[in-house]
Design goal:
By secondary structure, this protein is mainly α. It has one domain.
């Protein structure tokens, strides 16, 4: 399904669900994170020493368990 135009038109909730089901699809993940960032500023700033992968995992986990 890696079609950039489909991801751009997809509602954010649907894109999130897709990313969670297709964790190997890096293109979809990047588009999802770009859209999240465009819609609102992140609530936490990460330091240079922190792992980006850990930050993404923490964010996705917090979204799954509000």
């Amino acid at each position: 399904m890696s079609d950039r135009s489909n991801f751009a038109q997809m509602p954010i909730a649907e894109l999130r669900a897709y990313v969670l089901q297709h964790r190997h699809d890096e293109e979809a993940l990047h588009i999802f994170l770009d859209r999240l960032h465009a819609e609102k500023q992140p609530s936490r700033a990460y330091g240079a020493a922190e792992s980006v992968a850990d930050a993404i995992a923490e964010y996705l986990n917090s979204r799954q368990h509000p």
